Structure formats: structure tokens, C-alpha cells
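Exercise 7.
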Amino acid sequence: MKTCPHCHIQVGGSAQYCPLCQNPLVGTPEPDRYPKVVPPARQASLFYRIAAFVLLGAAVICGVVDYIMIEGRHMHWSLLVLIGVVGVLMLLRALLRQGRNAPKLLFQILIGTSLIVTFADYYAGWNGIAIDAIVPILCSVTLVLNFIFAFVNRRFTENGLVYLLLNIVVGVVPYIGLTLRHSVRPPMAWVICLIISMITFLGLVIFKGRSLLAEFEKRLHL
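Solution. The predicted structure, written as C-alpha cells, is:
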């Protein structure tokens, strides 16, 4: 155990300086009595940096293979890989942030992922699979997850109800737009998404109507 020659106190562990006068300690150090604990925020930051290094490195390798090793005219698929990597890193960063509002996060993931897959479909030649299938499936999954989360998690606040309502709007508005634009019926995925949106809206009105109304009054300062 180390000793401070000025304060005449004994300090355990492997400290180098006295906690009172900040003078150097003398004596033989002893093993730390308590393990060193890394704060969760530092662990998350380290994990994010490692993931960013690995994913961006993979994107660079894909770019080299696409633009240098593959000759002739072809679709540069490495751009799609880069967009996917950026989307994954943005999603990972949002998930690692503490105190995040889960419904808000799900809504942001829905919007971001929909934009990424739509751009990827457009870049690949636009076969319509993003708008006709992937986006409505994402909307349906987000609606179901938020609706379940609203009734299972006690920490689900009125703020989350607003984002659940936004999810419902996202599920209904595209269906209306596709119906007005095309004479034929929209794809079945959008029909299913519309049904889920109507069911979740009824559930909100019946079970969470007062909380939702109170939240809107608070936001509109009524």
C-alpha cells in the first residue's frame, strides 16, 4: 500500500498521486480492489468505430473491384453497396444512442430505408419492386411493431403515439396516390398495408384516444 509523505495517509490500489495534495505517493502498489468498468457509452462508441471501419473498408474494396478489375460497360454496383453501408451506419448510430424514442426511431428507419431501396431500384433500372413490394412491407412491419410496442411497453409515451399516427399516414397516403394515378388496383402489398393502417388507427382511437388527443393539444398549445 502506498503512503503520502505529506498527508500521511495510506492509499490502496495503484494510484500514482495523493488524492488530497496531488503529491507523488511512495511505497509498493497493490492490485486494484475493484475492476475497471468501461462506461457503456465508450463501449458503444468503440463498437461503432470498428463497424464503420470494417464496412467502409469493404465498400472501398467493392469500389476497387467494380471500377478497376471489371472491364467494359456495366452497372456500377459498388455505388449501391456504398449507399447500403451508409444506411447501415446511420441506423447503427441511431440504435446506439441512449434515451432514444423507439417509435420515432422506427419511423426514421422506415423513411430512410424506403429512400435507400427506392434509389437502389432506380439506379438498377427501375423495375418497380421497391414501390410495389418493399416499401409497403416496411410500412406494414413498422405499423405492427409500433402498435405492439404501444400496448406492451409501459414507457410508451404520448409522444410515441404521434409517430405511430405518422406511420398510419405513411401507409394510407401512398395507396391513395397510386389509386388516383393508375386505373388498375394498386399492388396487393399496398392493399395489405392499407388494411393494417386502418386496424391500427381504430386501435389508437379506441384504446389510446385520450392520450393522443392530450398530446396533440399539448403540441398545438390548446
